[in-house]
Design a protein that fits this description.
alpha+beta, 9 strands, globular, 354 residues, 48% helix, 3-stranded antiparallel sheet
Length: 354
């Protein structure tokens, strides 16, 4: 057994950090391994182990380690791969606290944050395409933004709505979720126009933004990175960050626009119309992903508090998606609770939750 394997086994005795696709453990690097990497003994590292059987609710095109090797040193705080072994990897650890923890509930984001966020956008979009791993066969050609959106839709429709949603058909029927919403969204794809593709993180939210001791931001967890339309980056960010104030939302959009004006100015024309389309995709995607996750969570603990919590979350995502769903009204929370109660027996004992 090599030293990395020993580190992995020791890490597994601890409590993992939260994650949908990986179990993450923060551990101290023992002296022999630290010395081999020219790092101080006791340096904190992150051990990442895939969760076997976790449902794949997000499109992925690269092994995370391949991408991290390619972009090392190009995006502030992006993890360095220290070891890549079958069943686990070891990454450098971004010292600091997650932005979501720093802010707490309803905390205000200042100018320093948007400036740092804009710099991350600039660095990411400036990574040369030639450095990135090859895209999978059939991936849309550079600039084919309509094809990029259709790739997102196809994955969500087949893997999330289709494969993972097959046990939830009756629940979606009771929630009055139209079956043709993605088809109608795909018909708007040609309105996206053409923009040069760039590296996209696609999961920039408060949990993946680490505030360092110097106040700077590091961007972690690159497993969902894609090569595509730069407008999708700000759309996914706005959808996941869920800014509490409109001014913060505008500031983030401005920071992204200023970053593109420096790194990819040719990508800006038509971005507002494209942003509306991608935000509609995010809202539709959220309907399926969040309803399934919330319903599975309630099925595991079908008590009153769990039912109310799941119903509240489902009501929120359905209301947010009324436009792309093409509906004027969504079910009342009481009706959602009743639908969850009826669905719970068929969901108990199901597969792992992503």
């Amino acid at each position: 057994m090599d030293s990395w394997e020993s580190l992995y086994r020791a890490a597994g005795q601890g409590t993992p950090l939260a994650g949908y696709y990986h179990r993450n453990y923060c551990v101290e690097l023992p002296h022999p391994l630290a010395r081999s990497l020219a790092l101080p003994s006791g340096t904190i590292v992150k051990v990442r182990a895939p969760i076997n059987g976790a449902g794949q609710f997000n499109l992925r095109i690269w092994p995370e380690e391949e991408l991290l090797f390619a972009i090392e040193g190009r995006v502030q705080g992006n993890p360095r791969v220290l070891a890549d072994r079958p069943g686990f990897t070891v990454h450098s650890y971004a010292e600091g606290v997650a932005l979501s923890e720093r802010l707490g509930r309803g905390g205000r984001l200042g100018r320093a944050y948007t400036d740092a966020l804009g710099e991350l956008f600039r660095q990411t979009t400036a990574v040369p395409a030639r450095l990135l791993p090859p895209c999978p066969a059939g991936w849309p050609a550079d600039g084919d933004c309509p094809g990029f959106l259709r790739a997102l839709i196809d994955f969500t429709r087949s893997e999330v709505k289709g494969r993972h949603g097959k046990d939830f058909g009756s629940l979606f029927d009771e929630l009055k979720v139209p079956d043709d919403a993605f088809e109608r969204l795909a018909q708007r794809a040609d309105a996206l126009g053409r923009r040069p593709f760039v590296l996209l993180h696609t999961d920039i939210h408060g949990g993946n933004l680490i505030v360092g001791t110097d106040g700077g931001l590091s961007l972690i967890d690159w497993e969902l990175a894609l090569f595509g339309d730069p407008v999708y980056e700000i759309a996914s960010h706005l959808a996941r960050m869920r800014y509490a104030r409109r001014a913060e939302r505008r500031a983030a959009l401005h920071a992204w626009g200023a970053a593109l004006a420096r790194s990819r100015p040719e990508a800006l024309p038509g971005h507002r119309r494209a942003l509306r389309i991608y935000l509609d995709f995010e809202r539709l995607q959220s309907v399926y992903i969040d309803v399934i996750r919330l319903a599975q969570g309630f099925a595991r603990r079908p008590d009153r508090a769990g039912r109310e919590r799941a119903a509240e979350g489902i009501e929120t995502v359905l209301r947010a998606a009324r436009g792309p769903l093409g509906v004027l009204r969504t079910p009342h929370r009481r009706r959602i609770e009743e639908a969850l109660t009826r669905a719970a027996p068929t969901l108990q004992g199901g597969g792992p939750v992503a």
